[in-house]
Design brief:
There is one protein chain. The chain folds into two domains: 122 residues, Rossmann fold (3-Layer(aba) Sandwich), CATH 3.40.50.2300; 93 residues, Arc Repressor Mutant, subunit A (Orthogonal Bundle). The longest helix has 19 residues. It contains eight helices and twelve strands.
């Protein structure tokens, strides 16, 4: 595989023994691995690199992990994969609410690590989607953004964009949760992940674009409504 055209994975890992292993595993499969062991340097480089996938594996205090996730999410729509040193439901929910696409509680084997990296990099590098237009909203795949009728534009994360693109493909149709999860996440998804992405997407549409009630909740599913 030509590295110039390979997916770029930005890894932030503060464990000196683990960071080179993650980098080696990724490079061995032909992907480009950008490895940073310092949170401070990662924050600085976040505006310089243009990764297709962001992996954060920190033993640093939880607020630092969240701050780094927020920093990446504010400048990038690429998927963010967050590894956590322990299982804490509140911290996991906070991570999803701040733009993380998947949380993984360690320990994790190198084989599972690689499987997740390859799965997410394929989703990130999927073929460009067709634009969608409705009365109040236009979806722009080239910039992974949503544009309102009055030209207000918001950037969407990878999952937010995929969800909105799916719902807008059939306005008024109630997509069952299972169909949405299978389309966007595959075997890695669940209803909790879906609810968090819906929450973030609604918040952006309502607070940043003043567009309310575009995504409607039904028993067991969601639909896009644009009267």
């Amino acid at each position: 595989m030509n590295n110039q055209n390979s997916p770029r994975v930005f890894i932030v890992c503060d464990q000196d023994a683990t960071a080179p292993i993650w980098g080696y595993i990724i490079r061995d499969k032909g992907l480009v691995a950008i490895v940073e062991t310092s949170v401070e340097r990662a924050m600085q480089r976040s505006t310089e690199e243009i990764p297709d996938l962001i992996v954060i594996d920190l033993n640093a205090p939880h607020p630092q992990r969240i701050e780094l996730c927020k920093k990446f999410r504010s400048i990038s729509a690429s998927p963010i994969l967050l590894f956590l040193p322990y299982n804490n439901e509140q911290e996991i929910l906070e991570a999803y609410q701040n733009g993380v696409d998947e949380c993984v509680v360690k320990p994790i084997s190198p084989a599972i690590f690689l499987a997740k990296i390859l799965a997410w990099s394929k989703r990130s590098w999927s073929e460009p989607m067709k634009p969608h237009h409705t009365g109040r909203l236009r979806l722009d795949p080239s910039h992974r953004s949503a544009v309102s009728k009055n030209k207000k534009e918001i950037k969407l994360t990878n999952l937010e964009f995929r969800l909105l693109h799916l719902l807008m493909s059939r306005p008024g149709y109630v997509f069952p949760n299972e169909e949405i999860i299978e389309t966007i996440w595959g075997a890695e998804g669940d209803v909790v992940l879906l609810k968090n992405v819906v929450y973030r997407l609604r918040k952006k549409l309502e607070e940043e674009m003043n567009l309310t009630e575009l995504i409607k909740t039904w028993p067991g599913g969601y639909s896009f409504i644009d009267d």
